[in-house]
Write a structure and sequence with these properties.
It is elongated and about 90 Å long. The chain folds into two domains: 244 residues, Aldehyde oxidase/xanthine dehydrogenase, molybdopterin binding domain (Aldehyde Oxidoreductase, domain 4); 147 residues, Aldehyde oxidase/xanthine dehydrogenase, molybdopterin binding domain (Aldehyde Oxidoreductase, domain 4, 2-Layer Sandwich), CATH 3.30.365. The chain is an alpha+beta fold. It has a four-stranded mixed sheet with strand order 5-13-14-15, with helices on both faces. A four-stranded mixed sheet has the order 8-7-6-12. The two termini are 34 Å apart. α1 packs parallel to α2, α6 packs parallel to α7 and α9 packs across α10. A hairpin with a 2-residue loop joins β10 and β11. The chain is built from eleven helices and 15 strands.
Length: 459
């Protein structure tokens, strides 16, 4: 790996490539060597996917080349080699980058592939591909699968406070950069405390509200901060019931949280509001003259034992214009497993955004240097980005295999969409140009590069 002129973030990118190379496949023997090299180019640093797209590209291209050599359908070669669901938890024999053994906690890789194959319409496509070839058109289909370590530690925390108004405030060290933290964390707390979603406020990255935090990186926020919110909400709910029991002169076990109130089980009309509970908690502190703030709050920190493993299968149908080298994406399928899905809309949005970034890496995004290490694509005048008109019809599907490594059963999602598209598109382009003998070795597959591949393949 070209680390550039200096080592900015350790060996994160090459280590991710190493530990994600085997993906969902049962590989009994593997020897992997990574060399990080200092050069005179700019430094390399993690970008969405962070070494995983490179590993997936290598493994998924190997499988398609193997299928071509054996004269088999590439999807069938994958189906024969994926780890079966009954083998979970599955030990790859490698170490993850946190130093712990790489043991996939849960997943159903055969089902991911089966659904992707069904949604892309593989059998029907093969018939259509033959008909298109008679018309001089080049259609291809490509698959790519991956397994991603998510939810890395060391920790993340949350403080939940019941305010005198009856509103709930969540403070966490995991800062949002557009992932929808306020919605996700509010949903988790609302589900535990049985309060309306609109009565919850979320504050991220404010050290005046919570002292410690790590940050939103490595597909970790919902796994770490989400579980911290869940645990703090359970603690807060227990205290609310205890205080309400004193107000209502009954046992806490006879009470329940419902609709932003605490009510006697089976007697909906006999209840107190959360605002009353908060004020009573403050009054009790003042009456007792006890030190401390007159607030009702609970803090919890979640420390994952190791990462949890998300996974997905991607499939793409493309058409390649032989004369111009332009690759058009007809359809793109993602079947994803991020464990328990907290918010389906946000989950789909994360995947869709990631897919577009992945398609950029597949078709146009490239850092270009001259022989002296000078960057030639250092501005958006020279660095091509995917456009809206390149966004393909996207078909999304989820399966839920909850993680066994956290109470919520969630897995990370932020980077997943960007990992497999370069490999899926490369496989599809090679499948389309198979009659010409084209073999794809790298991305991006820009028109100029595709035309060059065709020119070199045809005498």
């Amino acid at each position: 790996m070209n680390c550039g002129a200096y080592n900015f973030l350790g060996m994160v990118v090459p280590y991710n490539s190493l530990s994600h190379l085997l993906g969902p496949y049962d590989v009994p023997n593997a020897s992997i060597l990574v060399k990080g090299v200092l050069t005179h180019t700019t430094f390399t640093t993690p970008y969405r996917g962070a070494g995983r797209p490179e590993a997936v590209f290598a493994m998924e291209r190997i499988i398609d080349r193997l299928a071509a050599k054996l004269g088999l359908e590439p999807a069938e070669v994958r189906a024969r080699n994926v780890v079966p669901k009954e083998a979970m938890p599955y030990d790859t024999g490698l170490l993850y980058r946190d130093g712990f053994p790489q043991v996939y906690d849960s997943g159903d890789f055969p089902e991911l592939l089966r659904r992707a194959r069904q949604l892309i319409g593989l059998e029907e496509f093969r018939l259509r591909q033959v008909a298109a070839a008679r018309e001089g058109r080049y259609l291809g289909v490509g698959f790519a699968m991956y397994v991603e370590g998510t939810g890395m530690g060391p920790f993340e925390g949350a403080t939940l406070t019941l305010l005198p108004s009856g509103r709930v405030r969540i403070a966490t060290g995991a800062c949002s950069s557009g992932q929808g933290h306020r919605t996700t964390y509010a949903q988790i707390a609302a589900d535990v405390l049985k309060v309306p979603l609109e009565s919850i406020d979320v504050v991220g990255g404010d050290t005046a509200s919570i002292a410690y935090g790590v940050g939103s990186i490595a597909s970790r926020s919902t796994v770490t901060a989400g579980n911290a919110v869940f645990a703090a909400a359970e603690l807060l709910g227990k205290r609310i019931l205890e205080i309400a029991a004193e107000i209502m002169e009954t046992a806490a076990s006879d009470l329940e949280l419902q609709d932003g109130q605490v009510r006697l089980k089976g007697v909906p009309g006999h209840s107190v509001t959360l605002a009353q509970v908060s004020r009573e908690a403050a009054a009790a502190v003042l009456r007792k003259g006890a030190p401390g703030e007159a607030v009702l709050a609970e803090t919890s920190y979640f420390r994952p034992p190791t990462v949890t493993y998300a996974s997905a299968a991607n499939a793409a149908i493309v058409e390649v214009d032989r004369d111009t080298g332009v690759v058009s994406i007809e359809k793109f399928v993602v079947v994803h497993d991020c464990g328990r899905v907290i918010n389906p809309l946000l989950a789909d949005a994360q995947i869709a955004g990631g897919v577009m970034q992945g398609l950029g890496g597949a078709l146009c995004e490239e850092m270009v240097h001259d022989p002296d290490g000078q960057v030639l694509s250092g501005s958006f005048m020279d660095y091509a980005m995917p456009r809206a008109d390149q966004a393909p019809p996207l078909v999304l599907d989820h399966i839920e295999n909850p993680s066994t490594r956290n109470p919520l059963g969630v897995k990370g999602l932020g980077e997943g969409g960007a990992i497999a598209p370069p490999a899926a598109i490369a496989n599809a382009v090679e499948d389309a140009l198979k009659p010409l003998g084209v073999i794809v070795h790298r991305a991006p597959l820009s028109p100029a590069r595709v035309r060059g591949l065709i020119a070199r393949a045809i005498p």
